[in-house]
Specification:
This is RsbT co-antagonist protein RsbR. By secondary structure, this protein is α/β, with parallel strands linked by helices. It has nine helices and eleven strands. The chain has two domains: 159 residues, Beta-Lactamase; 109 residues, 2-Layer Sandwich (Transcription Regulator spoIIAA), CATH 3.30.750.24. Helices cover 39% and strands 25% of the residues. The strands form two sheets. Strands 3-2-1-6-5-4 form a six-stranded antiparallel beta sheet, sandwiched between helices. Helix 5 links the parallel strand 8 and strand 9.
Length: 284
């Protein structure tokens, strides 16, 4: 199994967001009800992201054992494509259990790979009506899969970066800074909590200064995780002061009001934070 397929749905954030923006374009261009992406697992294909124009045919999270899927036929085909006007009449698909379950006819699917050529899953469209797909339609869907391959690369790179060491910098005895940069998803937030708690215990930290000035907030996941990290540190007797809060982060926090409930001090710079606890930076 290649590393890309090991990413969870939450870690494939960019792929899910961008695919949803493309799905309506694809459905309109090919005149179909449903467009979706599947991810290949150890023994099954799971729908990662889907769009149903009218009737819901394929929900997100829908999973089928690999051997009984249309995706297997797509991936096994040398042209990385499988299409049929009516799944109920096609010799390769009419006996599959999924065919009567879904109740669809027109189908077109292409293999979705990462930039290294590893199979991630498939990009497919389907409709309740019979559909004849042209070579132009196939080429169009392949081009959409190529675009999604680049987005997949972004998620893969972000996943690799999340394994970099958590940047904790000791300032003076009992005081350390934790600088957070870039995107922090759930898995990286859990790593940050683990590192911060163990570092704080092993180094007898009294104050942790969290610098968020380089943090990129894309959704509401990390503000919630930050709340958990702060709460855990305070249970250990470690005080947290937060600096460098961006306007975007402040807007999310104003809605949730979690840090305010904890009584965490927030200041605009590390210098002010040090002044607050009775220390100062002195230039030699």
């Amino acid at each position: 199994m290649n590393p890309t397929n090991q990413l969870s749905s939450e870690q494939l954030y960019s792929l899910k967001i961008v695919s949803k923006k493309l799905f309506q374009l694809i459905s309109n261009r090919l005149n179909v009800n449903t467009t979706y992406i599947t991810q290949r697992g150890e023994s099954e294909m799971t729908v990662l992201s889907s769009f149903n124009k009218e009737e819901q045919i394929i929900p997100e999270g829908y999973s089928v054992e690999y051997g009984g899927t249309y995706c297997r036929l797509i991936i096994m085909n040398d042209g990385d494509v499988m299409t049929t006007a009516d799944l109920n009449k096609d010799l390769l698909t009419k006996e599959l259990a999924v065919t009567p379950e879904l109740g669809v006819k027109g189908f077109l699917g292409v293999t979705l790979k990462d930039l290294n050529g590893n199979v991630f899953g498939t990009l497919c469209v389907m409709d309740k009506e019979e559909k004849e797909f042209s070579q132009d339609d196939i080429d169009f869907l392949h081009s959409m899969a190529d675009i999604l391959s680049y987005i997949l690369e972004l998620d893969q790179n972000r996943h690799h970066l999340s394994y970099l060491s958590v940047p904790i910098i000791p300032i003076i005895e009992g005081v350390s800074i934790l600088t957070l940069q870039g995107i922090v998803d759930t898995s990286r937030a859990e790593k940050i909590m683990h590192e911060a708690l163990h570092y704080g215990s092993e180094n007898h930290v009294d104050y942790f200064l969290f610098d968020l000035s380089k943090l990129a907030v894309q959704d509401q996941t990390f503000p919630t995780m930050l709340f958990d990290i702060v709460q855990a540190l305070r249970i250990m007797g470690i005080e947290v002061i937060i600096t460098g809060i961006s306007p975007q982060f402040a807007m999310l926090e104003s809605n949730k009001n979690q840090l305010s409930k904890l009584g965490v001090k927030t200041v605009h710079s590390i210098k002010v934070a040090l002044d607050l606890i009775g220390y100062s930076l002195i230039k030699k």
